[in-house]
Design goal:
Helix content of chain A: 10-25%
Oligomer: homodimer
Number of domains of chain A: 2
Strand content of chain A: 25-35%
Number of helices of chain A: 6
CATH architecture of the largest domain in chain A: 3-Layer(bba) Sandwich
Number of strands of chain A: 21
CATH class of the largest domain in chain A: Alpha Beta
Structural class of chain A: alpha/beta
């Protein structure tokens, strides 16, 4: 086996990275997890998690993230506060170049850098995230039972989730900056046929406001420049997500616009490099499958290591 | 859309089925989960679970299974005590034939029937399961720190896990009924080179005994018929697993010896039929990835339903 500082370096400390780390530490691999900020990833800033199995009454995102990290630490996973700036993942020894100037080498790497939703970038959005502003209908839809809400976006996800949200909300306004949707035909038709959905065309949201929770949004028609107020209790921002790919050598990894392609065992196109969680090219991004992928990625690492000559 | 009793029927109430059910109930699908025995699957009979993320100190299998079920019930997932005897999964309306004589129809099905480890079928095995007898090295290995243990089997899994277990145990006896291993060469070589591993050839285990926990096993040489006693605190039975496939129409589903093939979105070869958990053809069978697959399977069901003309 070639020489390297570690058998495994995990990049990213969200549910995928921490679960991979839990499995790696339990398996007594020579491992380190690198996280540039705080562990927990997006979960950390999620107000309430109702659909992570094992918590019948739900759990706060903060508390769940703490539990993930505590469990990994219990098995003595070393977690280092380091920002990875770039990597060279080709060949048997992987090199990670840190912002601190150090270079770490490893026989395998698990990429678990995550993704983030595209924000609108308007006043009130950040302030009311988790208090009426949401980026995930599957996660938060059931909290809006009997209320009126807005969905921002015109793609497949936005329109499909608007239909989904009518199961809870009494009224769903879909706000789109163009005069037609990008969503596929059959999904469009289902939305147009739904009495609870009202489309507001050629319109952008310019502000989200409220007291302790969202009470309304300010709209602007991009053609007439007319401004109006819409009283809604929720605003789902569904205008795509982007991968945290800034530190990834995308020329060394098969990817879809920065989302890393893997097989079912979470192996990337680069031998010895696995990926798990939201950074992966896939359909669904939830805590539970991110964690599942982290565990699978670790087992693939163990298999890769055990086949090293 | 064609007519059917349900939009979704989930077969099996382990972590995969219950997570699919949790997601389906939250999404307000017209769904039912069918389970022939008690919910929880194999988790129910697992003594202690240390590697399901979210429980830093670990949790008893019984309690974790209860939490999974309680969470699904909180979102009003209907769980019915019914045994499925056979199915017809071809065409747009799936038919499930129950032991009770009833037939249920559904637009989609999630197969989550699980798998079970092959047992040795010897005295003491059942009695000491979870008290020294284990079928999963990844799950239970760390509980045997500083102890002497036995591994039964000669395939890839048995030999690879024997090496893995030397990280915890002071001595690992590998008991194999033949005079050579079936495991691949590189894995064999690693085991032969390991000082802590001792092979006992041409030998079968005939009894597992102890007090409150395992204290030893009785061995029999199949050539000389000589019987001996081996004092070990643990006995890992790693002689393969078999899918719970008795009720599955295997002629309608691509499969590997009964394990159902799926793509990354948990879709089987049959449109409208997803699979999740241990019944799937895959490398790793852990609670966390079974649950993750259940959630993904449900989202694939929703996508399939939303594209129905």
């Amino acid at each position: 086996m070639p020489e390297a500082d570690y058998q495994l370096i995990i990049v990213g400390g969200g549910p995928a990275g921490l679960t991979a780390g839990l499995y790696a530490a339990r398996a007594k691999l020579n491992v380190v997890l690198l996280e540039k900020g705080t562990t927990g990833g997006q979960v950390m800033s999620t107000d309430w998690v109702d659909n992570y199995p094992g918590f019948p009454e739900g759990i706060s995102g903060f508390e769940l993230a703490e539990k993930f990290a505590a469990q990994a630490r219990r098995f003595e996973l070393p977690i280092k506060l380091e920002e990875v700036q770039s990597m060279d993942l080709a060949g048997p020894v992987k090199k990670l170049f840190l912002a601190s100037g150090k270079t770490l080498t490893s026989l395998t790497v698990i990429l678990a850098t995550g993704a983030r939703p595209n924000p609108l970038g308007i006043p009130g959005e950040k302030e009311f995230t988790g208090k009426g502003v949401s980026y995930c209908a599957t996660c938060d839809g059931p909290f809006y039972r009997g209320l009126e809400i807005a969905v921002v976006g015109g793609g497949d996800t936005a329109v499909q989730e608007a239909v989904h949200l009518t199961k809870f909300a009494t009224k769903v306004y879909v706000i789109h900056r163009r005069d037609q949707l990008r969503a596929t035909k059959v999904i469009q038709e289902r939305a147009f046929a739904n009495d609870k959905i009202e489309f507001i065309w050629n319109t952008v949201v310019t502000e989200i406001f409220g007291g302790s929770d969202v009470e309304g949004i300010r709209l602007k028609n991009v053609k007439s420049e007319e401004e109006t107020i819409l009283a809604v209790k929720g605003c789902f921002v569904l205008i795509g997500i982007r991968p945290n790919m800034e530190m990834l050598p995308l020329n060394q990894l098969d990817n879809d616009d920065g989302f890393i392609k893997t097989d079912k065992e979470m192996q990337t196109s680069q031998p010895g490099v696995m990926a798990a969680g939201d950074i992966c090219s896939k359909e669904m991004r939830q805590i539970i499958n991110a964690a599942g992928e982290g565990a699978v990625a670790c087992i693939s690492v163990e298999r890769y290591l055990s086949n090293f000559k």
